[in-house]
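Colleagues,

Please find the record for the two-part complex below.
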Amino acid sequence: MTVTSPSSTGRWTPQRIAVWAAIALLGAVAWGVLALARGESVNAAWLIVAALCSYAIAYRFYARFIANRVLGVDDNRATPAERLDNDTDFQPTDRRVLYGHHFAAIAGAGPLVGPVLAAQMGYLPGTMWIIFGVIFAGAVQDMVILFFSMRRDGKSLGQMARDEIGPIGGAAALLAVFAIMIILLAVLALVVVNALAQSPWGTFSLAMTIPIALFMGFYLRVIRPGRVVETTAIGVGLLLLAIVLGGVIDHSSLAEAFTLSPQTLVACLVIYGFAASVLPVWMLLAPRDYLSTFMKVGAIGLLAIGILVTLPVLENEAVTKFASSGKGPVFAGPLFPFVFIIIACGALSGFHALIASGTTPKLIEKESQVRMIGYGAMLTESFVAVMAMVAASILDQGLYFAMNAPASVVGNTVQSASQAVTNLGFTITPDQLQAAAQSVQEQTLIARTGGAPTLAVGMSTIFSGAFGGEALRAFWYHFAIMFEALFILTTVDAGTRVGRFMLQDTLGNVWKPMSRPSWKPGVYATSAIVVAAWGYFLYIGVTDPLGGINQLFPLFGIANQLLAAVALTVATTILIKSGRVRWAWVTAVPLAWDVAVTLSASWYKIFSSDPLIGFFAQRDKYQAALDAGKVIPPAKSIDDVGQIVTNSTVDGVLSILFALLIIVVIVDAARVWAQTLGGGREPVLAEAPAEPSRLWAPSGLFPTAEDRARQGERREPQVVGTGRDRSEDEG
Amino acid sequence: MTAWIGRTAGRTLWYLREVMGENAYEHYLEHQRRRHPDEPVVSRREFERRRMDERDANPETRCC
């Protein structure tokens, strides 16, 4: 095995040194402005510059170091895509195309929602975590898991945990994957419900995506097989039309029919989720996936352009008083660990390990491309999170808190909300609140928790500033709501289906027929179980008198970070077992940090005596009230009190389960580490055998002169015209 | 300038078609020609149908 020679880094010419020195200097200045600004307003451009310069340096130096030194990527070794090429799941794919696939699979609503909630502590803590977290933890995790899975012919995270750690660690990892899936789906669905409740415009446009997707599916299946681009173009056109029509519906007598309560929306989502998971994918899931991918990339691109054009000024403080008090209304708890829990996607997202060990490793052409695809795509997601932070931070802070504090704090009227915001130390008049809602043609913006409406207001401000002016503000608001809801629903569709397959697999071990994909009763039963599981959490989230987002979002973050701990543990174990202990810190340090964050957050959630933070303290408080027959606010009836008791108990038990899972995985892995390092047992690695590669492809986005030179050396006569060389002419 | 616009548009379209999987059938024909030249190939309609139905059994996770 040869490590790519350091000569491939190219020579350090004076120009090159000057460019990197300039990037470093610019980044340092931007960070300085962000950190030292107190009292004066800061332009969002500094956030963008700080992020981009940091990413450039990390990608150029740290990611390269990890690829070449720590992992030892070897382009002379054939990847599974080359060795096992069957033109279906294994297939060498152009690196830029695969980057697009991978990015579309990892990025969703998560990086848009977390930063909006974390903005209650100011823009600085969240932004620092997003940028440094991705550089040292998130992108590292994605890249190393992608690499290790690729070396194992695309094995899943669960399989790798079982092979490299052992059956106990493996089982705990599988359980963690399933649990996070359920919580993830529930929390994301909750974001959609909170965005659509009492909003006829949003509900209508989103409902229209179902007939649009059905039409696209039919068109693609029967009329024009395989013409995806054309079909998607038609779909996007119809989608924009649906958003415009939503505005008309909003003013018509039909508005009533599309004004749904949160509870009705839950029922709709559950029925929809079940249907989407049992119907053939060509009907609903695949066309929606095309639509949502297109909208995702399009809207993110627009947002980037919008921010660059308008260069908005941040209204948020660098660090608010809630950072130290831990008494913020959006989510309770101190800065450490809760900012690091609330922002998972965008900084460190364990869920990505499932994708990095799913389809991507089976398609990668060259080992060295793990840097561009694993690390690069995660940097891009991180940038999306930074933009979400910008969108949330340009809002008037009074409006931000009126929208993001739960109804138990701000009440239901503009008067009560204005009063509550004043009590929090900010100002917004009832008239201003009313005007803000009217400007985006919503009935109310009060207690619209979940991040999506806040982001939509921020985005509509940026978009209407950049394109179209005030007249289009309401359109842009609903455009933003639509695009978030659209890809959340795609995640819900796909997640329910994946959860169903996992359940079928597991139950199949007990009773064979369950795992057969064609056996309908098994399919219906497992789909129903998965839908019921996330539907339950969604329902308790929607009806929770204390506010579902502030109760459930921390659990989602903990679950996501728990999965990251599993992934980083697997990676550290493989590094140790393959004799690279001296490099193990690359994954062990982020692992230690992640475990510290996750376990201390769990500790707070389980043991805190503050009923705002600790689930069991909360339970005790309301149980005492229940026993005394007293109704204490925000509960409005004795039933509400009983419901809070039940919810707190369920959430608390779940916190314990998550904490135990993480401990089991780490202890089991530590056993393997000790055995390996003590030399007691020859480590057995589950890597696939090495075979020489016959393909050539560049490592990075642009083929370098050296790439081209090596191509000449490496190409063998019998592989000329493999049909995979088209990439050389592009880019 | 016009040449540049034409080239950029061409590349963008190529990228879109690749990312969205519109070129899968061409890749399949290429693959068959290279690896199994004596086997018959299926029609585009049939190929797309099989490719889609494969996703029924192998759902891809979408993240948050």
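Strands of chain A lie at 42-43, 313-314.

Comments are welcome before we finalize the supplementary table.
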